[in-house]
């Protein structure tokens, strides 16, 4: 090894870091390093147990050892902070792009607006409407007539059909229901008429539904005994009855002025 100048007989070196050579039995060195900055101040004894003096590090050797210790400590600290995985245990970065929803463009409606008609003018000009209804057809307040108008498809004409219900001003009881079918020239023809107390017509999925209240001899206008619900379907240029439903009403409902029963208290277990 370079730097050892001692002989096997224990002679002193002439310039190496050690001033003593190995002992006769070859177990160690009898002399330590010199005091001029060498590595060791004492060598092991002839029996291999050491001289009793602990070696110390000096000069660049001590500095190298200190740096190595700091490097080892740094690796240990990093290992502890990462949980042994080699990467930092942190959440995802907050710079991820946020998803944005682009509103879809609204598709404009292509349906044509339903043309409105003068329902009162149709009734007064229609000879199919009874004289009594036409005479009694007057405004209730101002220019407001007791007339309801519905538009929809019933007869498959060039435009919407018109259902007109005429009522009384005082209690809004229907007195007549009429259906007007459009002609290609823009005029209307009467294709359905029913005139009787408490009648009302509506459009339901392409059919005409007429409801008529049924009154007994002692029934008040507000409390009929029942009703007839008749469905009419357009076919072969005319309406024909498709279905009929009769409903009987409970006569006790609305006959008394009693209070609502008080709610019972909950049962305690």
Your description of this structure?
This protein has three helices and eight strands, in the order αααββββββββ. It has 269 residues and is α+β, with helices and mostly antiparallel strands. The strands form two sheets. It has a four-stranded antiparallel sheet with strand order 1-2-3-4, with helices on one face. Strands 5-6-7-8 form a four-stranded antiparallel sheet, with no helix packed on it. The radius of gyration is 56 Å and the shape is globular.
What's the short version?
With 269 residues, the chain is an alpha+beta fold. The chain is built from 3 helices and 8 strands; from the N terminus they run H-H-H-E-E-E-E-E-E-E-E.
Q: Extract low-pLDDT stretches.
A: 1-24, 26-35, 37-62, 75-82, 84-90
CA-based shape: globular
Count every beta strand, where a strand is a DSSP E run of 2 or more residues.
Answer: 8
Strand composition percent: 15-25%
Could you spell the SSE succession in H and E letters?
Answer: HHHEEEEEEEE
How large is the radius of gyration? 56 Å
- State the share of residues found in helices, binned by percent: 10-25%
Number of helices: 3
Structural class: alpha+beta
What does the average pLDDT come to? 73
Largest sheet: 4 strands, antiparallel
Distance between the termini: 98 Å
Strand order of the largest sheet: 1-2-3-4
Would you spell out the secondary-structure blueprint of this structure?
Elements: H1 59-81, H2 119-125, H3 131-136, E1 147-152, E2 161-167, E3 174-182, E4 188-194, E5 199-204, E6 207-214, E7 226-235, E8 238-248
